[in-house]
């Protein structure tokens, strides 16, 4: 018999390159600062089961692109997908890829869409803070100041969509977080255990691969 689980695992296996201090990603900036710090200092091979979950997210995004491109959905036009950008702050660079840029034909507005897949839409009542921050930064970096976070349920393709208003102030706060992250890394200083201290974020600790290190408060 063939072991298809193993085959998927082998197919998804990639060599993990260590992250470079000075190169940061909007998808990580809204998470726990300490966890991000650890991921630069102590890179870990991504667990294959986690890699499978990430792949489901990619598959889901592929499907969303098909829906956005469909001729049956004439109210919008898909302008770009996986749109790369890079911003140089001198001491460090922030780069990423915006999921989708669409044009709403009715009002001629361009809108960025960040797609997230979820296990259960039932519990999604608003856009998660880290997703909002990611999109806020994309709006700042691209100059497209309209953004939506789209959640799609992996079990039944039901979806919810949340608008994120562009805010100069929030964008500056996010840039300050990048500066803080860079300073902690460059100066070998361990950030505070942000997720543990924040009620909205402490669920992240349950899935954190650095939990043991963090408990011991170790660098
Ligand atoms: S255990 Fe929690 S507080 Fe500590 S690094 Fe991980 S996510 Fe952050």
Q: Report the major sheet.
A: 6 strands, mixed
Structural class of the helix and strand makeup?
alpha/beta
Poorly predicted regions are none
Helix content: 25-40%
CATH topology of the domain at 48-187: Lambda Exonuclease, Chain A
Please count the helical segments. Answer: 8
What is the mean pLDDT?
94
Which descriptor suits the 3D outline? globular
Rg over C-alpha atoms, rounded to the nearest angstrom: 18 Å
| CATH architecture type of the domain at 48-187 | Alpha-Beta Complex
Strand content: 15-25%
Structure ligands = iron/sulfur cluster
H and E string: HEHHHEEEHEEHHH
End-to-end separation in angstroms reads: 46 Å
The total of beta strands comes to 6
| CATH first level of the domain at 48-187 | Alpha Beta
How would you sum up this structure, described in words?
There is one protein chain. Helix content is 39%, strand content 24%. The protein is α/β, with parallel strands linked by helices and 219 residues long. It has a domain at 48-187: Lambda Exonuclease, Chain A. Strands 1, 2, 3, 4, 5 and 6 form a six-stranded mixed β-sheet that branches. Helix 3 (33-41) packs across helix 6 (168-186) and helix 5 crosses helix 6 (168-186). It is globular, with a radius of gyration of 18 Å. The mean pLDDT is 94. Bound molecules: iron/sulfur cluster (SF4). Iron/sulfur cluster is lined by residues 32, 34-35, 193-196, 204-205, 208, 210-211, 214.
